[in-house]
Amino acid sequence: MSEKIAVYIDGENISWRLYNLIEDVIKEFGKIFIFNIYTKKGSNDYENWDKISENCKLIKCQNKSCKDYVDSILIQQVKKDLKIYDFLTLFFIISSDKGFYCLNKFVEKKEKEIKFISQYNKTSIILDELIIKNK
User: Fold this and answer.
1) Using CA atoms, how far apart are residues 23 and 29, in angstroms rounded to an integer?
2) Phi, psi for 68 (deg, rounded to 5)
3) What is the pTM for the complete model shown?
4) Is the pLDDT reported for residue 8 higher than 60?
5) Could you identify which of 4, 62, 105, 117 might form a hypothetical disulfide with 94, taking C-beta atoms 3.0 to 4.6 angstroms apart as the criterion?
6) In 3D, which of 54, 45, 44 has the Cα closest to residue 20?
7) Cα separations in angstroms, 44 against 16, 51, 58, 76, 77
């Protein structure tokens, strides 16, 4: 079965250099319907994410100084999308933060699947404890 996928990248702590690798890995699971990248305007990688975001939606969070602001915007969007887009079957959260594991119960309550991808180093990611490297 081909999954119907939503992707949410925490652009504050995932390098824009991994975008193509992340996209390639996720496409193996099915068709991507939502592909959002969350970052703060003025952050280190903001301009780079902006340049490569033509195939996805760049969410430019206000430059608030409060900790975890971008994370909270991403979490709110996942919860909203769970209610609106019932056809989605698989949600990917790409972040090195552990704070997103709170989404497990919301996604599983809707009988959907959630997977987490984190950055391993500058050229590779981790999915289901498997290290995947850029070619």
Assistant:
1) 10
2) 65, 20
3) 0.88
4) yes
5) 117
6) 54
7) 10, 13, 15, 24, 23
pLDDT at 119 > cutoff 80:
yes
pLDDT digits (tens, 9 = 90+) for 82-118: 999 999 999 999 998 877 878 888 888 889 999 999 8
Does residue 79 surpass a pLDDT of 90?
Answer: yes
Domains located in the chain, CATH noted: 3-133 (3.40.50)
Residue 118 Cα distances to 18, 65, 95, 108, angstroms: 10, 24, 5, 20
Q: Are 4 and 27 in contact (CB under 8 A)?
A: no
Type of residue numbered 75: I
Token pair for 125: 């990611």
